[in-house]
Prior knowledge:
Layout: H1 2-16, E1 31-40, E2 43-49, H2 54-65, H3 71-76, E3 79-87
Antiparallel strand pairs: 1-2, 1-3
Amino acid sequence: MFLIVLAATTALSGSYASAPQTTSVVEAVSQAVLVDCQVTGANLTDCRAVDADGTKAAAAVQLASQVEVPEAFALANPGRILIKMTVNP
């Protein structure tokens, strides 16, 4: 009797089991872009991407223009600096 109930339960549960759903996961890959900037007071100005072109370079330059430089760093490093900006697509 127990085997009949077990067989019936297995048969019913197999018919109601849902198929596993697969979804396509696309990972965003970050890219590092070197940016050459002029230190002017607390800001970075005249920024140019060194090793990238197109939208990645534009995004890196935009990020660099938003960076605020600490006063001690600006005083210790007058002139141009090279920074690495990580850009997500």
